[in-house]
Amino acid sequence: MYRRDYRDIVAGVLLVATGLFAAFYAMTHLNLGTLHRVGPGMFPISAGLILAVLGLFVAIPAMLRSGPKIEIVLRPLAAALGAILVFGLTIRDFGLVPAVCVLVAVAALAEPVRPRQTALLAAGLSIMTTLIFKVGLGLQVSIISWPF
Questions:
Q1: Mind listing the pLDDT tens digit for each residue in 104-126?
Q2: How many other C-beta atoms can be found within 10 angstroms of the C-beta atom of residue 102?
């Protein structure tokens, strides 16, 4: 047990850094506009500043309380990052549904999960993403394609 809750301190500092980076990037690359004519930079700047303030609300109280020892477990981290990477590499060539299925399969490597649960999750997420992005938003993404 540490005298301070370093886990929340690190999380808060990362939120502050991410929020300030997003706000700074939007401020330097996008037009802010006015309150009567909102530009494309207004939302990212606002969201970044709100994220930074929320990060302060996480980090400051954590400096005043004790917390558990930080344990970094690499398997879930690698599975989550690998799932995102595999999704990005497969969606263009194979389509939305196979990319979501592969994403779920790789993410399931983070913890022991039954294959039936993984298959049900992949099917459910495939249906939801198809309904949201293809049907609801009308994005021009292929559902299933085979590059060979």
A1: 999 999 998 899 999 999 999 99
A2: 18
